[in-house]
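Handout, tutorial session.
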Amino acid sequence: MIALGTLAAGCASSPERESPVRVPPNAGVYKIGNPYQIGDTWYYPREQPDYDETGIASWYGPTFYGHPTADGEIFDADALTAAHRTLPLPVNVRVTNLDNGKSLVLRVNDRGPFAKSRIIDVSERAAKLLGFYGAGTAKVRVTYLARADLPTGGPQPFGVDTPPAVASAIPAVPTPDVASAPLAALPGAAVEAQAPISVLPEPPAADALMPSGDAAGLPTGQVSEVPVPAITHLYVQAGAFSSYQNAQRLAARIGSGMKISAIQRNGQTLYRVRLGPFDATNDADSALQTVTSQGGNDAHIVVDQ
């Protein structure tokens, strides 16, 4: 069974284990995967080298010990891995906890989470390093880095299935030193159509989030600390359109207090249909269920200022 899940909240009572951080043996191949459906929502795995999203992370573990992941690797709760619904497998991503600024590179090798309100599931060890193991969930930013380790030792051209790679030893988690670096602007931070809100600075260079020893974007267990906004909120976003009229139509169809806000992205104005802000995850979860039940099948939770 593919390791997918929403068991984070129920898994948060296991004792801390002092074990080395590692990546699992790469017993699988590079794959994109076919479209699949969860409830009323279809998901379309695809190449996403510009992937940069915010949302809520959870963690998964005990039920999946020793089971194969979606790309054929064996799930290891102490490995630096994660599950994502649409990214190719395996790829490396940077996950930043927007509640505490802790940031870590993880290997996405599985499909999930099944809960629509979650953007990514991480392993137990990753949740501990990111500082939300006890809470079960956290507001996070997930940024694509590169395809994961492959036989030639580096990124490969997109769209080519890759034979198994040889597992490599990964050093234990460094305890005395924690690197720090600036955080790029939150994707989606913008000016509301009716009321301005603060905007984070322009993103730094692509490698600015990489602490020393982590420049290749590999899951080494190095935790970096980045400055994050003092206050962030949760929003349920039903869609984003280049046409204001299309945004109006969706907002009117869903109702429930949906608002339209504008964002400038790549020189283009996008109109986002949103509900919020919410400060509590449970409130955002309930709002997402309401929006989905009223026809917003593409709705999802995002983090913004």
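The second record follows below. Compare its token runs with those of the first.
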Amino acid sequence: MKTLDIKYNFIGNLIRAGGDAKTVKGNDDGYLTAIMYMTPWKSFGVNLCPSAELAKCIVGCLNTAGRGAMNSVQKGRARKTEWYVKDREGFMAQLFKDLTRFETYCAKRDLKPCVRLNGTSDIRWETILIDGQSIFDHFPAIQFYDYTKIANRKCDHIANYDLTFSYSEANPAYAKQVNIALERGLNIAVVFRDKDQIPETFLGLPVINGDKNDMRFQDPKQSVVALYAKGKARKDTSGFVIDGFAWTTLTNRLAA
């Protein structure tokens, strides 16, 4: 059994593990999560978060939370984004190297490797192929997982990739994405403003504590994953952040 007293620190060119206060909570269960952070929404002529405007999560994005507020961190994320846009082949080759090193790093420490490729982006990695296979196919021993606002991503057949859908009430048009996610049985992540005012049920589903750790692939199915607002999200009033017991679900709002 691993404990939080043990410090792990993996730094790749594109991914990093050990520097996130939430993901290290998974160390207790023998997991180590590496995350790749890029510049969210529109950057370098490409939109890495295609549903950001629809869900109005731009202001509340975790891109500026914690170390993300540092200029040096933002420059690093911009560098990765530029590389991804201008040299996709080289970028994917480096990602392949990073994942290989990370897998070895975890094996030497008897840890189970986990990776979030979309720390602050929403890229359909399942559509980017290396020698005819996705990155998930190349690394079957790694548990990949992400949050997404694209409800119709074709990932159900990928055994080592788990997706949690991100909820928003900011735009009635986003209700279509919410409904698709519910119909597909995806777990729904909801950002609440106050962690002390989180309801027991939401959208008719039981609510679980998503801030206990970041291991979303371990969550019980058909659940709402409660997260609480951090960084600039605390002041977000778009409808992306939900005000505890005072919420009105998007479904009810449309039916009114």
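Points raised in discussion: Residues 88-108 form the longest helix (21 residues).
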